[in-house]
Design a protein that fits this description.
The chain has a single domain, classed as 3-Layer(aba) Sandwich (Rossmann fold). The chain is 47% helix and 16% strand. The protein has 10 helices and 7 strands. Strands 2-1-3-4-5-6-7 form a 7-stranded parallel β-sheet, sandwiched between helices. Helix 2 packs across helix 3 and helix 4 crosses helix 7.
Amino acid sequence: MMEKVNLVFVPGLLCTDVLWRRQLETLTDVADVRVTQQHLRHGSCDEMADAILAESPPNFAIAGSSMGGYVALLVKIKGGARVTHICLVGSTANLNLEKQYERRQMLLEQANRGNFEEIKEQMVRVFLNADNLNNATMKSLVDTMAETVGLDCFTRQLKALIHGGDLRGELQKIDCPTLVLCGEEDRLLPIELSREISRGIRQSKLVTLKGAAHLLPMERPDTVSELMQQWLTGTLPMDGRELTI
């Protein structure tokens, strides 16, 4: 029987452990799983990464969604061989994107005015695809996560993203199995950004998921769990080839 790996989940902007609920339930056969809370506690991505390394086992795999994916990359860069596997979901290696900067500044202005309800409405429209926007349960889960994070923490996360950096030059140094997932309908961080990550990392696999936008672990939970299990057990070829399912 294969020894379990330690697996750390990193939620993204305005998200909590609820995002990874299905994976926390289904991956226990192959991994000892936990969700970090450091993305809620610090004012920069570097601080989040340092705190995750400080609290994590000597060797571990890491999976991050959106902002959490960028933080996961930082954890690998800082932690080196301690990080044995990376999974990046709807993410980017470069936070210095003009379009994203403008969106974040607009959200920050709204946050400074206290318009949290308006912010939540905007975010759910880019988090979920059209079909899932009609799913009352899923929308309720997104609202629950947002309320847990709260306006103050959301503002802190936005500032961390605004002052983030560009890790694309570090990708070629990453030497562990890397699963890159992106929703076919992701308008927040579209497929080109995931493809850029996958092409920069030698041991990688890019999988595009149909019928999903940005919150893949919730929108396609069973598929994400299956792919992650294959990633952890080494049965998914890290051959650089793209797959759409």
